[in-house]
Design a protein that fits this description.
It is built from 9 helices and no strands. The chain is mainly α. It comes from Punica granatum (Pomegranate).
């Protein structure tokens, strides 16, 4: 969350190759810059992992990367779901001019926190290929690494697609929420009972 506020105005706070790819697909980011961003993200992750290994003398049994605890399939499905949720929120707060942009870091940070609570015990809740690739390269543990490349990319693309499906409407929000509102029907039934 702090990093989003710190560098968001400079680079768009792109720390995640899956999000960068999804932004490019949905035209929020130029495709020609995607390779450079991904290389920078991977270098940053690898350097950060290398720094941790040097500072704390990390061994194979104290690996800080992500590996599936359950099956690869379980972790893949969880990574797709939580990456979907992350991208859906990012799309809502970072690309829709109707949102309150100042709250983007809080919304994204809380989504990541909830995703970690839910999926962390099974998949490690990476949601970010660079976050998994850097430690894998540094410590040479590649178990299930493909899950953390494929899952977040598929999940973020689906999340961006889903948000774009609901984003484009000519109806004002008031009309959308009033059309079939459960609360509105409840208030009508309460008024008729009185």
């Amino acid at each position: 969350m702090v990093m989003v506020y710190s560098v968001g105005h400079i680079s768009g706070a792109h720390f995640n190759p899956a999000v960068t790819i999804t932004f490019a697909i949905f035209r929020h980011f130029p495709f020609k810059q995607v390779p450079l961003y991904i290389v920078a993200q991977l270098i940053g992750s690898t350097l950060a992992s290398g720094t941790l290994c040097l500072l704390f003398n990390v061994k194979h049994d104290s690996y800080f990367g992500t590996v599936p605890v359950g099956s690869n399939l379980q972790s893949l499905v969880l990574e797709i779901i939580i990456s979907f949720l992350l991208m859906f929120v990012i799309s809502g707060v970072a690309t829709d001019n109707r949102s309150i942009g100042e709250l983007a870091g809080i919304a994204v940070g809380m989504t990541i926190t909830l995703n970690v609570f839910v999926a962390g015990p099974v998949s490690g809740a990476s949601m970010n290929p660079a976050r998994s690739i850097g430690p894998a390269i540094t410590v040479h543990i590649y178990k299930g690494l493909w899950v953390y490349i494929v899952g977040p990319i598929v999940g973020t693309i689906l999340g961006g697609f889903a948000y774009n499906l609901i984003r484009f409407t000519d109806k004002p929000l008031r009309e959308l929420t009033n059309s079939g509102s459960f609360l509105k029907s409840m208030s009508r039934s309460n008024q008729s009972a009185v």
